[in-house]
# Entry
Amino acid sequence: MDAILEAEAGLQALDLAISYAAGVRMDWDGEAARAANVQLNAQIGQLVDLRHRLFDAREAAVAARVNYYAQMSAACLGAL
# Structure
């Protein structure tokens, strides 16, 4: 499978995980829930950080592909 498509799928999965975790966090109440929310907030933060890194990697892969196609096009035009 294409790396860019895999990154897109990963971004969608992370979006769902973040949304779900945020929904769980809001539904709880009480002292034990506050402690759990602290841990959940930390995990959500890690998921968001991972999402940013995956997005950046996807952008780099797209840029590399565009550069590759530009070079191939230039090479083909030069060969004519």
Remarks:
- The radius of gyration is 20 Å.
- The CA atoms of residues 68 and 74 lie 10 Å apart.
- The mean pLDDT is 90.
